[in-house]
Design goal:
Distance between the termini: 73 Å
Shape: elongated
Bound molecules: heme C
Largest sheet: none
Number of domains: 2
Number of strands: 0
Oligomer: single chain
Order of helices and strands: HHHHH
Strand content: under 5%
């Protein structure tokens, strides 16, 4: 009888602990690629700059932008960073910037904004990612 009590206790503790571990693991699960927004005529100035200003330019502007990538101008965004172009005009699904914000790059260190960054800048919403995709698919103007 005593043994069974221990077994029950172990299960009672292990199950919630297991769930808690699964829940933390889920935070780091790669995302899916949200569909491109249906909106036409998406532009950097009209639609994308506000998103970048809100979530990216704290680290991606100024004299020493992270990854040598500036996102505070259209030229900077198109030029890319130390790893080359992050945007392939006309192909959002192959653009590394999109894979990073959608958490599709394999290494979660690559996700943007970085998880748990000190500035507490959270991930983009699927709607914002959809708009960035539409902008890139429409030629990144
Ligand atoms: C809190 C700081 C921070 C924020 C906010 C941030 N990034 Fe980054 N970003 C980094 C760092 C750090 C690197 C990697 C630098 C390195 O590896 O040398 C990086 C690298 C990148 C790169 C790769 C550049 C290259 O060629 O190496 C892309 C693309 C990128 N970020 C996009 C974004 C986008 C889009 C946003 C906003 C949605 C964003 N980042 C927000 C810090 C940030």
């Amino acid at each position: 009888m005593k043994n069974q009590t221990w077994i029950k206790l172990t299960f009672a503790l292990a199950v919630p602990l297991g769930l808690a571990l699964t829940a933390t693991a889920d935070d780091a699960t790669p995302g899916t690629l949200p569909p491109a927004a249906a909106k036409q005529g998406v532009t950097y100035t009209g639609d994308i700059k506000p998103i970048f200003d809100n979530s990216c330019t704290k680290c991606h502007s100024g004299d020493k932008p992270k990854g040598r990538l500036k996102l505070d101008s259209l030229d900077g965004a198109l030029k890319g960073g130390k790893e080359g172009k992050a945007i392939i005009a006309g192909n959002s699904a192959k653009s590394s910037l999109v894979l990073r914000v959608a958490h599709l790059s394999k290494d979660d260190d690559d996700w943007m904004p970085p998880q748990h960054n000190r500035a507490h800048i959270g991930p983009l919403t699927p709607e914002q990612i959809g708009l960035i995709r539409a902008w890139i698919d429409q030629g990144a103007k």
